Amino acid sequence: MEIRLLFATPDAESQALLNSLLASALELTPLHVTVNYATTPEALLARAQAGADDVVVLDWLMAKSETAALVAQLSAANPQVRVVALLPESYRQYRKQVWQAGACSSIAKENMEQEWFSSVLCIMHRAMQREARLHALYQGMNIEETVREPTACCSAVD
Questions:
Q1: pTM for this entry
Q2: Whole-angstrom distance, CA of residue 21 vs CA of residue 40
């Protein structure tokens, strides 16, 4: 199962940081991830409406104090999208607001590291697998075909 990941940040330095964290995280967890980028709230919302992404890593710099409102708009546009909000350390009070708006997780941008990012991706991956199984069950589909993993992904190594 592939994770369609979107890095939503207007800042080239933040984009480079996120790419670096992803590369390190994928060394720890053998997930299949496709990355895209949005540099404006408009582009982000258009992608959400198109259902183009599974997980959005939303940088505070996209909407600053309106980040919670942007999360709510994303959730309304695509209820299946999972949002991870990156907040400045000095604005921790927004954590509850982004969670109430629909974000799955938030973290101070200064505290991000590969273990955290790897864990978040793994949790998102497992949630997507379970949702696919439930969807298939309710649709009467072959569940194993719906959530089959490539042999290199998520299998125990002896």
A1: 0.85
A2: 21
Q: Which CATH number fits domain 2-147: 1.10.760.10, 3.40.50.1820, 3.30.565.10, 3.40.50.2300?
A: 3.40.50.2300
**Structure-token pair, residue 115:** 């273990």
The span from the CA of 119 to the CA of 2, in Å, is 16
Instruction: Tell me the residue type at 51.
Output: G
Q: What is the pLDDT along the chain (158 residues), one digit of tens a residue?
A: 899 999 999 999 999 999 999 999 999 888 999 999 999 999 999 999 999 999 999 999 999 999 999 999 999 999 999 999 999 988 878 999 999 999 999 999 999 999 999 999 999 999 999 998 888 888 876 655 555 555 555 443 43
